Amino acid sequence: MSNIYEIVTEKIIKMLDKGIVPWNKPWTCSTGAVSHYNGRPYSLLNQIMLMDEDDSITDLKGREYITFTQIKAEGGSIRKGEKSKIVVFWKMYDKETNELDANGNKVVKRVATLRYYNVFEVGQCEGIKRKYEAIERHHDPIAEAEAIVSGYFGRETCTLEVVESDRAYYSPVLDLVHVPQPSQYEDIAEYYSTLFHEMTHSTGHKSRCDRELTGMAAFGGKEYSREELVAEMGAAFLMNTSGIDSKKAFRNSVGYIQGWSRKLRDEPRLFVTAAGKAEKAVEYIINGKGGEQ
User: Fold this and answer.
1) Is the N or the C terminus of the chain less surrounded, counting Cβ atoms within 10 Å?
2) pLDDT at site 24
3) Are 6 and 14 contacting, i.e. CB atoms less than 8 angstroms apart?
4) Which residue has the higher pLDDT, 110 or 207?
């Protein structure tokens, strides 16, 4: 089988080539796929890996995936002709280096390696019953978005500056997020997607998730592309977490899609790396701590 990074990237490129930006797909923790084993929603990356290319939010709702080993343990079987999908995870192990510590012993570092396993949707199985029901959400999306914003800036030293202007940016030196006023946007969703994008950038500050933003390579470089993809995915996740309709909020022009397709072809590890960092950034914004990559 191909390298797992290549498998993931190939799927994303196929979706991009069909005009689909997978990280902008609408799903949330209450409507995405969950594990049959423990009911936990899959990560951002795995939600995307479990999508079919024409999936919508209603397609993902209520999906429950199970491994072959779990199917056998529960006395079930896989229907003839059904095909599995993959989910990925990071496996940590200790690796001895050539560096020496103060006592002259070789330094051992924790290294993360990407692994995968095959899963089937419960509906593809015989003798397996669903254990979890999708949660129906009844909420005010704008209020939820504002709660995310106020919670983050109320907790962090980062400054939010919302003024009439024609620029949106995050300044690592000033630790400041600057966005135009909501009234300057045609749709309020565009305001929140822009704000969440810059908020995600701000988690790269050394006092938070430490993605070394200061001195980042020039526009178009690998480091720039990786950080932009982190911010794009972080914004999409936060939009969908708050429940704001994101159809008009994200770019999906031909040039935008082709640009990412080229970058992913040039750097097969880009998407997986950025997805892990985006997951960690969002966890930090919402809960004040970084998630696992």
Assistant:
1) N
2) 80
3) no
4) 207
Q: What angle do CA 229, 118, 69 make, to 5 degrees?
A: 145
pLDDT tens across 157-178, in order? 999 999 999 999 999 999 999 9
**What letters, b where the CB count within 10 A reaches 16 and e where it falls short, cover 59-81?**
ebbbbbbbbeebbeeeebebeee
Q: Which of 277, 272, 188 is nearest to 237 (CA)?
A: 277
Nearest to 107 by CA among 116, 115, 98, 120: 98
Environment class of 3 (CB within 10 Å of its CB; exposed 0-12, middle 13-18, buried 19+): exposed
**Both tokens assigned to 61:** 């709702």
Residue from 282, 107, 117 nearest 208 by CA: 282
Provide the token pair at 17.
Answer: 């080539």
Does one domain contain both 147 and 290? yes
Phi and psi dihedrals of 106, rounded to 5? Answer: -65, 135
Q: What angle do CA 79, 83, 89 make, to 5 degrees?
A: 120
Residues 122 and 100: their CA atoms lie apart, in Å, by: 50
Half-sphere exposure of 249 (CA within 13 A, CB side): 27
Residue 32 and residue 124 in one domain: yes
Number of structural domains (the chain) is 2
Residue 124 sits in the same domain as residue 194? no
pLDDT attached to residue 57: 44
Q: What is the C-alpha separation between 284 and 261, in angstroms, rounded?
A: 28
Q: pTM to 2 decimals?
A: 0.83
